[in-house]
Structure formats: C-alpha cells, structure tokens
Design goal:
75% of the residues lie in helices and 0% in strands. The chain is mainly alpha-helical. The chain has a single domain, classed as Fumarate Reductase Cytochrome B subunit (Up-down Bundle), CATH 1.20.950. Helix 1 runs parallel beside helix 12 and helix 5 packs antiparallel against helix 7. The radius of gyration is 21 Å and the shape is globular. It starts with a helix and ends with a helix. The model has no long low-confidence stretch (mean pLDDT 93). Bound molecules: protoporphyrin IX containing FE.
Length: 256
C-alpha cells in the first residue's frame, strides 16, 4: 500500500505542479520535453483514482479486522494509530529533549506521534485535496448542488493544500524516514516489516517491555536476502531523488 501511495503521490505532484507553475519557463520546458499538459491531466486523474482505491481498500481492511475478525485495539489503545493524550505528552517531552530541557527522550511504543501524524495526513489530505480535486474534475455535478464560485474556491484549496502536502512529505517525512539519525540511510521497516532486535528494543521500548518471552520469540524472523534489501534501497532512493527534484522545482517555481 505504501508503494502504491508513493507512486500515486509522486505522479500527482509531478503532474500537478507544472500546472500550478505553468507561468514559469521551467513548467513550460517540462510540458514541452517531459510530459505535455494534456498527458499530465490524464496521468493526474489516473493517479488520483489509484489513491482513492488504496484509501478505500485500507478502510475496508480496517473494518474487516475490527468487525469480522473481532480484533481488539484497532481503533483505540497502545497498538492503534488513533492519537491519544500520551502522544501530545510525548511530543512536548521530545521537544524538551531536543532543546536540552530533558535528559532523555520519551519512550515510544508501537507507533510514535510523528508516525500517527503522517498516517492521518493522508486522511485529511483525502478530504481536502480529494474532495476539491473531484470538484475540479466534475464541475458540472458539483455546481448542480452548490454555487459556481465553489470551483474557484476548490481550485485555490486544491492548489495550496497540494503545495503543503508536497512540501511536508519532501522535507519532514523524508527527514524522518531517511535522514534522521537512527533511520539513515533508510528506515526500511515499511517495506520489509522487519527491524533489527537492537533497533526494536531501543526505538520501541514500551512495546518490547509488554511482550512475554514467547510473544517475543514468535516475532523473531530471519533477515531479508541481500538482493531484496538492495532492491528496496534502490527503489527508496529513486523516490527520494524524485521528491527532492520536485522540491527544487517548487522552490524555483516560487522564486522565479
Ligand atoms: C486525490 C485526488 C485528486 C484529484 C481527484 C485531483 C484532481 C485534480 C484536477 C481535476 C485538477 C485540475 C487540473 C486538470 O484539469 O488537470 C488538479 C490540479 C492540481 N492538482 Fe490534483 N487531484 C488530486 C490529488 C492531488 C495531489 C495529492 C496533489 C499533490 C500532491 C495534487 C496537485 C495538484 C496541483 C498542484 C494542481 C494544479 C493546481 C493549480 O492549477 O494551481 N493533486 N487536480
């Protein structure tokens, strides 16, 4: 799913941004040499459809887990991605640690507060970017229900929120998953589902402390073959590179 989100997000950003900055020479160069505006519009809609499908499948899987499999703790609890009061406390304690006001960082469990933030960014992104995008895609339907100025508003909302989303992903998210000490050169757990025992004990002490010896042993697995690891790194760094290029395009597009 993350791979699907990466591919669709990079396509959406790569095809949307030249349109946003279509007044610049750079965007016109991209349109003439890499992807024309008409092709970009088609690709943008295809990638948007992929995001909607992934989002729907994810929601269905969550509901299935909770209500068919009767799994507890999906929507609330230490193993859930739903934020709790403790996440706000962790956030402030972490900042205090960064500025030297606390000696030790907070202890994290299954999910950290920044992982929950990243996860929910997709949810509000779907509401804000998704709904405004659909309004731009199907203006005839939306203006049957609402006034015409809504299209102008949807355009501004879509454009600015897209800028915020790309700016956030290509700086904060990339820092957290690639450049942060502890993650460098790449936090591969999203693709492999595995981390070293040392990293698990150090980064998720609360989750580790909760496990019985049997539960811990049941989680142990062999490392991935080297070729697969290399493949993940090549893919990860290719996406990182594309993101950084788009970030430079955003900065140039804003300055020019
Ligand atoms: C997920 C659902 C989305 C839908 C349905 C959607 C749809 C659209 C549509 C219909 C347009 C008008 C341009 C055209 O006709 O080709 C547009 C423009 C644009 N989209 Fe999206 N989009 C979506 C997501 C995104 C995302 C995730 C990003 C960026 C990360 C993005 C960035 C942009 C940008 C920058 C523009 C140009 C806005 C401007 O002209 O200022 N879109 N989108």
């Amino acid at each position: 799913m993350h791979l699907g989100i990466i591919l669709s997000f990079l396509t959406l950003a790569g095809t949307g941004l030249p349109l946003k900055y279509s007044h610049t020479e750079l965007a016109n160069w991209i349109a003439n040499n890499i992807v024309g505006f008409r092709a970009a519009a088609v690709l943008h809609r295809l990638a948007a459809t992929l995001v909607f499908i992934i989002f729907a499948v994810h929601l269905i899987m969550l509901l299935y887990k909770r209500f068919v499999k009767k799994k507890k703790g999906v929507f609330w609890g230490p193993d859930s991605l739903v934020p709790r009061w403790q996440d706000f406390i962790d956030f402030f304690n972490h900042i205090a640690y960064f500025i030297g006001a606390k000696k030790k960082p907070p202890k994290f469990g299954r999910w950290t507060y920044w992982e929950k933030f990243d996860y929910f960014a997709v949810f509000w992104g779907m509401v804000i970017i998704g709904v405004s995008g659909l309004t731009l895609w199907f203006p005839e339907i939306f203006t049957k229900l609402m006034p015409g100025w809504l299209i102008n508003a949807a355009h501004i909302i879509h454009s600015e929120e897209a800028l915020l989303a790309t700016g956030f992903i290509f700086t904060v998210h990339f820092f957290n998953t690639h450049l942060r000490p502890g993650a460098f050169p790449m936090d591969e757990v999203i693709f492999t589902g595995r981390m070293t025992e040392e990293a698990f004990k150090e980064e998720r002490p609360l989750e580790y402390e909760k496990l019985t010896e049997e539960e811990y042993k049941a989680r142990l697995t062999s490392p991935l073959p080297l070729w697969m690891k290399r493949l993940f790194y090549i893919a990860g760094y290719t996406f990182l590179g594309i993101g950084f290029i788009l970030l430079v395009v955003i900065i140039l597009g804003t300055l020019i």
